[in-house]
Every structure is written in C-alpha cells, then in structure tokens.
Design goal:
With 164 residues, the chain is an alpha+beta fold. It contains 3 helices and 9 strands.
Length: 164
C-alpha cells in the first residue's frame, strides 16, 4: 500500500473535522464536537444509514458518514424545513447525499495541490449496509453523540471498501 497524505491523522483533522462541524451544526449543542480522528481496526456497522463519497487522484480517500436513523432524520428536517418539502425516505437520502457531496467537494478543494486534480465520485447513500475494507487500508474514525443518536465519520485510505 502506498502512503497517502491522509494517513496523517493531523491532516485528516485539519481537512475533515471543520467540514463535519459545519455540516452537522444543526444537530449539535455548543459543547458537542466531533472527536479528533483516530486510527481504528474496522468500521462499526451498528448504525442505520451510511453516506459515502470517494476522492481519487494523487491520493485515494473514501469518506463515510454512518448515522443513527433518528439523527439522519433530524438533520433532514432541519435542511428542508424552510423549503416546504415533504419529509420522507427519498428526501432523507437526497439530503444525506448532498451533505456528503458538499464535504467531498470542499475537501477536494483543500487537498488539491500543484494543479493536480482530485476526482470526486457520485455520493451514495445506503441504509443498513455492512461495510468492510477490501484489502489493506488505513481507517480513521471520528464521532459525536447527539441528542438524536450517534454520528460517526470515517476516512478510509486508499478508497477501497466492499458493501453488502
């Protein structure tokens, strides 16, 4: 496995923690913060919903948000309340897809160096999916406990997972 800049936890914290705090601000009280990223041996598969996006190019990263259904639903409600849209599972998936897309896009802008392009995949939202590394990867985790459940964020490098 070739090393990528993301294997550095300090870089992961610098790039992704601010994006997570901004994206999940509606769910968090002032004292609630995502933890710093730490290297973990596996991805927890105990949450209900997973949103994922991959960044590839000079580095290879998969970003995953793994949420309890109640936390995902509350976030969706906050995002659509002023738009007069109907609350349903399709809207839930659309909102989570857009949030992971924004995180990926902003991370792409921060990680692009020396004119090298980082490609961003389409977002994917899965309900009750089991995730496992495919091959040798570095898995980093951050999490926060909200009033509505746990939100976990993972950065997997290189971007190489299996879904089942």
């Amino acid at each position: 496995m070739s090393e990528t800049p993301l294997a550095d936890v300090a870089l992961t914290d610098t790039v992704f923690l601010p994006l997570l705090h901004t994206s999940f601000k509606p769910l968090l009280h002032a004292e609630q913060q995502f933890s710093g990223f730490t290297v973990v041996p596996s991805i927890s598969s105990t949450r209900d919903i997973c949103a994922t996006i991959s960044l590839t190019g000079p580095l290879s990263i998969m970003v995953l948000l793994v949420l309890d259904h109640a936390a995902a639903w509350k976030l969706m409600q906050h995002e659509i309340q002023s738009l007069g849209l109907e609350e349903n599972d399709d809207m839930l998936e659309a909102v989570l897809g857009e949030i992971i897309n924004i995180i990926g896009g902003n991370a792409t802008a921060k990680l692009a160096v020396d004119g090298q392009h980082i490609h961003l995949s389409l977002p994917m939202v899965l309900q009750a999916a089991k995730l496992r590394p495919a091959g040798r990867v570095c898995i980093q985790q951050s999490q926060v406990n909200t009033d509505f459940g746990v939100v976990e964020a993972y950065c997997v490098s290189p971007a190489n997972l299996c879904f089942s």
